[in-house]
Design brief:
About 70% of the residues lie in helices and about 0% in strands. The protein has about 325 residues and is mainly α. It has a single domain, classed as Up-down Bundle (Rhopdopsin 7-helix transmembrane proteins), CATH 1.20.1070. It has a two-stranded antiparallel ribbon. A hairpin with a 5-residue loop joins β1 and β2. The radius of gyration is 22 Å and the shape is globular. The N terminus and C terminus are likely disordered.
Amino acid sequence: MVNFTENATVKCTINHDIHQMLSPVVYIFVFIVGLPANCLSLYYGYLQIKAKNELGIYLCNLTIADLLYIFSLPFWLQYVLQHDNWTYDELLCKICGIILYENIYISVGFLCCISIDRYLAVVHPFRFQQFRTMKAAVIVSIIIWTKEIMTCCFVFTHGEVSMDADSHVVCFEHYPIKEWEHNVNYYRFSAGFLFPFSLLAFSYCGILRVVHKSPGTQKKKKIQIKRLVSSTVFIFLVCFGPYHILLVVRSLLENTCSFAEKIFNIYHVSLLLTTFNCVADPVLYCFSSESTYQNFAKMRDSCLTCLGCLRPETKESYPLNTSESPNRPQHEQ
């Protein structure tokens, strides 16, 4: 049974049809594709850690955040298939909601860590070595997880289930949004999206500038690095940009049920876009480090060879971190 700790002050009549049509398709796709992809990525992140590469720590943490959210998808799938009616207790609603937001902001945090790590490796290969160690990566990871858990504990002290106009028990949905959510949404936009995106853009612009000016870098390698950088920024903007922009729009304009009804569909489409981050992250892992890229390439080529679709041949890879500092041990590169 659900215990109501906070009832909706205003019961808006919202059309939830988008949850029955689009959400189940997205959740099932992300679960089927994201679960094995992230398990594989977790394994290769472990190999990076075993090779004493600090990048592996960031990759593993990013994958763990994705896997936690993927494991919560069956609950959200049942929720939307039952016309947004939460049949479990409020504690489980809070846990699933915390995992949802943790996935967004922990993913953002570790994507920034990866971009800064690559920036220091390419732009300042002989400086800031103390920030590119296994110990530093562990400390940064602990800080990110602690910060996000404390933020969630502070934010989610309110009741997160309420009864809507159709007598359905809704989880993590308030229409119109409540007063305490306004400042939280502004914080999410500024500290959870805008500031990390600025760091990511600064890092990758620095990488592109150095690669462009490097006369010794092969043209094909430059193209590969540029594609990696542009795809990372693109995925970041597509997965997280619309959602955070709409958070601000809701905080500024959503005062009545009329506006809540108008923005409901587009807001939930933006929320679904954040879910695709769980599938996009493993794709980026293929280009994040040399050994990971080569292992995926070998596995792909072996499968194609067994199927008779590809003749065995030697292929050349151009991962981003081939510009590691020359004075680092070979096994770390």
